[in-house]
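Researcher: Please predict.
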Amino acid sequence: MTSIQKTRVVSAGKVVLLEALTIAILANVFIAILVFPPLSPTNTPIIIVDNVQSPVGSLSQLSNGTIWLPREQYILEPTLDSELAGKGAGDSCGNIYAPDIIFDDGIYKMWYGGQSSSGHDSIHFATSADCVTWVKHGTVIPTGVNNHVNDPSVVKVNGTYYMYYSVAPVAELDEIWLATSNNSISWTIHGQVIGPAATGWDSLKVGRPTVLHEGGVFKMWFDGSEEDPANPGQIKPGSGRHVGYATSANGVTWTKWPGNPIFNHSGAIDVEHLDGKYVVVEESGTGIWWRTGTNETSFDSTSHVLFRNVNTTFDAHGHVTPFIMVEGGKWVATYTGAATARSWDRNRIDAWYPVANITASIDGQLARGWAASRTSIRWTFDSTAVGKVAQLAYQRAGLATSASLPVVAGSRTLYLMPGSGNFNILV
C-alpha cells in the first residue's frame, strides 16, 4: 500500500512594521521612501512583526530560538446544536476538541469532536482553504446508541480514508473503532478494532488513537487504563493512564506490541514523524508537553514543556487532545482543545504557532508581545516612548545583524527581513 502524508508546503517571509517613515528592504540592501498619512501624535506607537511563523524542521529549533504563541482568536468555536453542551445551563456553553487535520484534494480537512446539549459526543467535519477560516459541515460519525464518540485520527491510503476513533458504549469505558470513506464525508462504520485487554495496564479501557501509515504498515499509538479487580468498571487506584503501540497490515486486524506500555502516565497524545524521530505532544492542565522517540516504541522517559497556558479565560485550565500540523516536512502549528473550564467540558479549538524568539523594548523596558494571527505579532508602547529608540530582537540561532530607529509620532516604517537563514535583527 501507499500513503498520503499530511503535508503541504507553507512559506513565510518576515516583516516588521514600526512607527516611522521609511521602507528598508534589508534582504536586498535596498532603501526606498514611502510616506503614510500622518497619525495623531497622541497615537500609541506600535511595532508589528508580520509573517514571523518559523516552522520547525529541525527539533533543535525547539531549544534554540523558537517559542510558541497562540492565535488571538479560536480557530473554531461551538455554534451547532451538536456542539452546544451545557446550553441553557447559564454558563458558557459548548464543547469542541480533538482536532485532526489533513491537506487533501487542494483543501484542509478537519475532523473533530463536539458535545451536544444531551451530553453525548459525535465527530464533526470542517474544511478550509487557509487552515484559519473554517466551514463546518456538521456531524459525520453520530453518537448512535453509544455514550461517547470522539478523538478521530484519519489517514488516507490508496484513495480510502481510514478513521480511528474512541467509542464508549457506556460511561467512559472507551474502545477503538474504525470507519472508512471514499469521500471524507460519508462513512461506513466497521466497529471495534482494538478493545481492552483481559488483564493488565489497558484492561479497563483504550482510546484516543493516533495513526500513521508508513512503509505499508498502519501504526497506532493509544492510551489505556487498568481495571480495578476489586471494583469492576473502575480504574485501579494509583494505576494512571499509559500509552501503548499497535500495528496492522490492512488497517482492520491489529496486534498490540508485547512490550506495552511504551511510556507511562500520559494520554490523549498525537504522534508525527519529523526530523528522523517520532514526536509526541501530550495534553495537560498547564499546557502542552512533548517528547521524542528514536523508533515507534522507544521514547524519552520524561516529557518537556512545549508551551504553557496563557492563563486567561482563553485556556485557563489547560489544553486537551493536541494535534501536530506537519506541512512540507515541518511542524507549522499545534492545534488543541483550549480548556476554558476546570471540568474540561467547555473547550474551543485553538492553534499555536512556532515563531522565532522575539522581544521588543524601549530603552531597556521589555514590552509584552502576543500573536495577532497565524502570521503576526504586535507590541504596543505607551506614548512616552515617542522620541526614544525602539529595539526589536529577532532571534534565530547565533548570527546577527542590527539596525535601530527612533520611535517617531505620526509615521510608520516597514522592514522586510530576509525570508530564511540564521539572523538576529535589532530595529
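Model: The two ends are 52 Å apart (CA to CA).
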